[in-house]
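User: ok so my PI wants both of these folded by tonight, can you help

Assistant: No problem, let's get them done. Here's the first:
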Amino acid sequence: MLIEHDGQAPTVHPTAYVAPTATLSGDVRVGAGCRILFGAVLTAEGGAVELGAGCIVMENAVLRGTARDPLTLGRQVLVGPTSSLAGCTVEDEVFLATGSRVFNGARIGTRSEVRINGIVHLRTVLPADSTVPIGWVAVGDPARILPPNDHGEIWKTQQALDFPGYVFGLDRPAEGESLMPGVSERYGRALARHREDRVLET
């Protein structure tokens, strides 16, 4: 399904393949020879989603561009099934295995691998030829690659990256308070723009 969002329509190179159950919404640009498989969602939420030549996006992956951070894949990148990428830059020849999570403002260097259920956190810079092992977490600039049970070390770096402020424009709440009312109001208002969307092709 191709959807016009905020006055922007997806563009798909004639040599690319988009599965009939994939969804492309807004300023999504699919390069030559790309393959977008069943159930994948590529959505430009205020920022473009751009795929270089020869990229493969597997089943049920979600790629989201944001106003602050467009999403860019270089050439010959593979995004595995159920992976989720938001507002990040992925350089050429990167392998993102099943269930990978790459967050806003992150950059993944050429020929890197993020293995099954690996995480590249907010504003993290992963140098070329890096590997994030199965289920591990890359965090910071330069990236530290840590096991998921090392929460203390992950938090030492992650806290300063300020996820609520960077992604939602909100201060971290005081103890006993919740971030969610503010997130729900701001994010809900932004997502309400989809009410004006126009389906171009199914």
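One down. Here's the second:
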Amino acid sequence: MNIKFLLLLILAMVSWGFSWPIAKMIAGSVPVPVLVFWRFLATFLSVIPILFVMRLPIRLKSGKDYWNVLIGGIIYTLYNQFFFLGLKNGLPGAGGVLVTTLNPIVTFFIVFLVQKKSISKRQVLGLFFGFIGGLVILQVWKISIDYLLLSGNLFFLLCSFVWATLSLNSQKTGKSMSPITYSFYVYGVGSILELLFCWNDPNFWKVWDFGYTFWFAIFYLTVISTTFGTTVYFYAATRLGSEIASSFIFIVPLSAYLSSYLILDEVVQIPVIIGGALAMLAVYLINSKHKKKETIIS
């Protein structure tokens, strides 16, 4: 695996970690469909200059491509709905842990069932360490089942399952279009879908009355976390496979907790450090077999 590409992917995952507390800051400012629409529209517009600079084609080659981007837009819209609904009541650190530790497990499971791919013992061990690391960061021994269901974290659980399907969908498009082109259509479809639900909402234009904090959050969630972070992830899914790319999401929980401490003054405890170390070990174990193959081929 190219070192520069690896560092870029890690940076993208860190940007996702910071997106949790930043999104929490604006999660309750307006109804969720309105918030998601403006995020999607801003992201859609921010991708256009990249398409022109890189001279990437935007024309889809087949009906299958149209179908894939439509499904991708629907899935990503659902993910963002669950994302902000969970953040309205739940904690950003807990949400980052729940989503990002369960997502690779769900993705590997789906790949195993649908694509009939084998999973090595090393990868299973990595998934185990990643899951345990997430539980340690969350300090699950202090949390009751009722708390997980009633605190908004149920939406975070739904996020993990929805994102796994999005990873597989983005992988399918890798041979026929650029990940950036895929992102362009996904955000476009998402904008249209959300507009149908919020165009007559009295809060639709209210966002223009908000100050610096709101628009900084939108800028970060749009340009940094989504345009940069998600596009890099989609690209990784096409190059490495969705199950390998999703394993890097184990980096997000620690960065989500640390950024929550910096931005929202959440207390960072020793379990966070231990769990983060286990998650990083998981990334190594899951990818070690893949990296060995690349060395032999090159």
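Residues 291-298 have pLDDT under 50 and may be disordered. The two ends are 10 Å apart (CA to CA). Good luck tonight!
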